[in-house]
Amino acid sequence: MEVVAPRTEDEVRAHLAAGKLVEGLQHMSPEYLKGIRRILTVSADTELVSAPAYLRAASHAPALNNFGSAVSIIQDELAHAHIGYRLLGDLGVDMPALIYEREAHAFKYPYAFDVPLDSWYELVLANALYDQAGFVLLSDVHQSSTFGPWKRALAKVDKEETFHLRHGRTWVKKFAADPDHKRKLQASLDWMFILTLEWFGLPDERKKHGIQLEYGFKGKTNDELRQDWMGHVVPFMDEVGLDVPAHFDEEAQRYVIDCPFPQQFDGEKKQWGGVEIGWDEVMTRWKGRGPMNETYVAKLQKGYRG
């Protein structure tokens, strides 16, 4: 049965202008409902697919207690995914169909999770880079969201993501202090840093944020969020002596990317082409998905599909 959002666009804008939160379908217009469903789906899918991605790398944990820490993070990610899907269920979305009956390529999450994490180095870097990206994005939503149920739920998510970040940074500091570990860490950072730059999507000159900002689904643009992420990551990597292709430009008062961006990427070999390409080519790669897309989704749907 099709769910009908009863408010007009003008009524929703007046509601928001009065400083009120949207608490459910009764406060939504069809356009607001469509937008909040989309951003919740991206968030929930990202949290869900991180679980098999992190579990794959957790098998390389150096000790059993380290494996336990990784599994604890994975449990958090599954709980975060449940929050998003549960809210979508309240908004009339068929949750079982959304989670278990979609084709793998229809899931909506950053391309980075389609590239396999094959070592403990890559897992702790994912905590330091990917979870930092998630923290930046969800903190923005937490501060700006006009959808009350999600805004309140993200207070818990923010605290748990802080633990994931601390786990990643603690290990990165430890590995960076040892020449052999540092060399292996740097090799992983070389492909993972640029891939996380892509996480925030198209540049503002290509992206039309209109309804997302007007309705308060997010507070900052893609480029502003990318700057926030570099503001956390670049100084930290400088502090521990790891090289990243970005620096803070004092004159421009912003972070500058020091490599061709975007550029061609081989997901199987985890190698960048080194030559700048257009965003249309990046979009083609994103839509085609990467090496682990079908494997991860099949793992998540296995119990349901039998």
Description of the structure:
It is a single chain. This protein is mainly alpha-helical. It has a single domain (9-227), classed as Ferritin, core subunit, four-helix bundle (Ferritin), CATH 1.20.1260. The chain is 63% helix and 6% strand. It contains eleven helices and four strands. Strands 1-2 form a two-stranded antiparallel sheet. Strands 3-4 form a two-stranded antiparallel ribbon. Strand 1 and strand 2 (254-257) form a beta hairpin. Helix 5 packs antiparallel against helix 6 (148-176) and helix 5 packs parallel to helix 7 (179-198). The longest helix has 29 residues, at 30-58. The chain is globular, with a radius of gyration of 20 Å. The relative contact order is 0.12. The mean pLDDT is 95. InterPro entries: Aromatic_CoA_ox/epox (IPR052703), Ferritin-like (IPR012347), Ferritin-like_SF (IPR009078), PaaA_PaaC (IPR007814). Pfam families: PaaA_PaaC. This is Ring-1,2-phenylacetyl-CoA epoxidase subunit PaaA.
